[in-house]
Amino acid sequence: MTDQKKYWVYIVASRTGTLYIGITNNLYVRVLQHKSREIEGFSSQYHCDRLVYWESFDEVLKAIDREKQLKGWRRAKKIVLIESMNPRWEDLAEKAGAEMAFAGQLITARRERLALPLVVLTGMGSFDSTLSSASPMTKFRSG
Q1: Are strands 7-13 and 50-57 parallel, antiparallel or unpaired?
Q2: pTM of the prediction?
Q3: Containing domain of residue 43, as a range?
């Protein structure tokens, strides 16, 4: 059985609405890089760190073609695309990188060392940091 590679075309936005379109083979890691401003250039300079849209592809050439297509669109058309998936412009990866714990579970010194936010989970399920192609939102798994 072979591992199927995935590629994502994504849009990150600043709080003021500046848009950045990119491509990656690991959306979770790339979003964390945007959030921590590890990637120098436009997205870091304009604080584009909120994932507002993404699409997944099985073939890198299709992803590259789509990225080029979106970059060629006028802003108004990009906004319609974003709002078709995410009408309230929510950060689809708001909790990316957060340390997870169940109610009553102690958090180790690792949290202080990494300065990560804490998400306490209840009976709703556990956080799955992988982003699937089936849903634009971060997935949650039952118990």
Answers
A1: antiparallel
A2: 0.67
A3: 7-85
